[in-house]
Amino acid sequence: MKLLIIEDEQEVQDDLIEFLKGENFLCEAVSTASMAKEKVYMHEYDTIILDIGLPDGTGLEVLEYLKKINRDTGVIILSAHGAIDDKISALDLGADDYLTKPFDFNELNARIKSIIRRKQFHGNNTIDFGDIRINTVSHEVAVNNTNIALTQKEYQMLLYFISNENRVITKESIVEHLWGDDTDMFDSFDFIYGHIKNLRKKIINAGGNDYLSTIYGVGYKFQKV
Amino acid sequence: MKLLVKTSLYYALASLLFFAVAGFIILINFNNVIDNDINDFLVNREEIATTQLVNDVPLEALNNYEQIIKITKNKEEVDNLIFSDTIVYDIIDDEFHAYRKLNVIRKIGAVYYDISIFKSLIESNLLVVEILKPMLLVFLGLLSFLLLGNLFISRGLWRPFKETLVTLKNYELGSTRSIDFSRTNTQEFNQLNSMLNTMIKKIHYDYLNLKEFTENAAHEIQTPLAIIRNKCEILLQSESLTEVELKPLKSIYNSCLRLSKINHGLTLLAKIESGAYDNSEKIDVTEVVRNQVQHYIEVIELNGFKITTELSHPIHFEINPDLVVILVSNLIRNAIKHNNTNGIIHIITMPNCIRFSNSGNQATIDVNQFKRFNRSNKNSLGLGLSIINKICSAYHIRLEYCYENGLHNFVLYF
């Protein structure tokens, strides 16, 4: 999987590269709009991570350019603005997703994988993880070929865990993934235990392995046994 | 009290006081003059009577209703003129009248006569009244002339001041329209206007600077925040960290999340203030409420609250489509955040108004919360209500809050 990171803030760029390499992506990075246009013209990428504020223009220009040269690449916009109109114009211009800085690595990871899934598996919409099989179109989950009934939140959580296999995921990160901006609506995130417990129980009851381990005081990790 | 009314009142009071004193003095003077006149008249009459007595005119012929002469044995105080005021009963009119009386004892030959001469004061009193009447009229005329004159002159003189006030009232801080005071020929008002002008320019400049600073700060903070957060996440992935190291790291991570949220709210406030959302269209607010309730229903249920809605009245209002969503969602979020355990939320629409009610303790919200960072709940950022207030004032939506029967009520009048 080849990714292009367009981000002018060196430190953010470095962190992104380090993180995405850890997820076994092939990464290239540029920091200006003109270099970005050059890169996308010469190479094909699976997904582009695009910062809106660039020193020589806006990321929206790069989006327009992609459209002009007819590249069907997945694009995730990163923005420090958080402005709704920015978001709308970015999505109108063909971006696949939109994240506001500061963003969560796990969230970014999940979104990249979701885009790649959408772009690559034409017809084949299943994810296999150990004895779990997920159909991303019908949202059906099967453990050892037995379907299990998950609530929408449990389904989203499972997908998030699988996208971030082997990574520590904080409670906050899970709540933010499931509820977005509404995380401050909850006095505590303890209710998430209930959701996680139910998901775990459903998988184990269907004869599946227990992939989830708790990292004390930090969060959870989903990994193959 | 208006300045004009105030000056007129002072003028009237001062004039009245002056006229009262002047009137009193004039009255006393008049009385003195008249008294002297009457005294002279009495002395004159007494002299005639004495002459008549010397000339042996019989006593009976001398006595009449204004003149009583008796033979007296009193030999003291001879030739001492005693003037006094008295009242005499008038049989014809059947009432008492004021009289001036002169009493003197004269020795004519060997006989002592007690002579009393009277003079009615009716005419002189009438005279005083007749003189005072036109004087009072003149005084009143003068007073009203003074007051009216003052009113007209002041009105003219203060007109530039009033114009300045109107200009100030119509001025809106942050608007691009510059303030324009009209020139006057009064030096003081010109001075006032030019000072106001300088002051407003300075305030406007500071305001713009501050606004720009807030916007820049909020924006520039995003990148460092992203770096902190990402570094925390990288560290959290590390296998080698011990619990002692993880604990502070987790706390940095959580504070960073919180800071991002605050920053997000502040950026939004700055954006609303700077008019970034000024395009508007006709929107059914009730429909927005319906959608937002749907959006928050899970969060509400997870928090253990019960929500009831009566959304039968559509409310069409010209507003920015993003801001109306922010407004409604903030009201619902507010109802969730400041609620009791097992609390309730009730939303009702009526023609032209919406009421958001939620259970809660009285102390947790007061009207001050419309200002920034006035918060009672540790999880609340204290920005929600200021965002609500900001949007309402931008679109002239009247926002009312009251606490009744254990319910916080926010009512929006469109």
UniProtKB/TrEMBL annotation, chain A:
InterPro entries associated with the record: CheY-like_superfamily, OmpR/PhoB-type_DNA-bd, Sig_transdc_resp-reg_receiver, WalR-like, WH-like_DNA-bd_sf
Keyword tRNA-binding: no
Residues in OmpR/PhoB-type domain copies: 124-224
One Gene Ontology CC term in the entry: cytosol
Keyword annotations: DNA-binding, Phosphoprotein, Transcription, Transcription regulation, Two-component regulatory system
Biological process (GO), any one: regulation of DNA-templated transcription
CDD domains attached to this UniProt entry: trans_reg_C (cd00383)
DNA-binding region: 124-224
GO molecular function: phosphorelay response regulator activity; transcription cis-regulatory region binding
Heme among keywords: no
Boundaries of every Response regulatory domain copy: 2-116
Sequence positions bearing 4-aspartylphosphate: D51
The protein's name in its UniProt record: DNA-binding response regulator, OmpR family, contains REC and winged-helix (WHTH) domain
UniProtKB/TrEMBL annotation, chain B:
Database matches in InterPro entries: HATPase_C_sf, HATPase_dom, His_kinase_dom, HisK_dim/P_dom, HisK_dim/P_sf, TCS_sensor_his_kinase
Annotated ranges, domain Histidine kinase: 216-414
CDD domains cross-referenced by the UniProt entry: HATPase, HisKA
Reactions catalysed: ATP + protein L-histidine = ADP + protein N-phospho-L-histidine
KW Nucleotide-binding (keyword) present: no
TM annotation in the entry: 9-30, 135-153
Keywords per UniProt: Kinase, Membrane, Phosphoprotein, Transferase, Transmembrane, Transmembrane helix
GO molecular function: phosphorelay sensor kinase activity
Pfam families registered for this protein in UniProt: HATPase_c, HisKA
Coiled-coil ranges from the UniProt annotation: none
Listed PROSITE patterns: HIS_KIN
GO cellular component: plasma membrane
Record EC number: 2.7.13.3
Protein name: histidine kinase
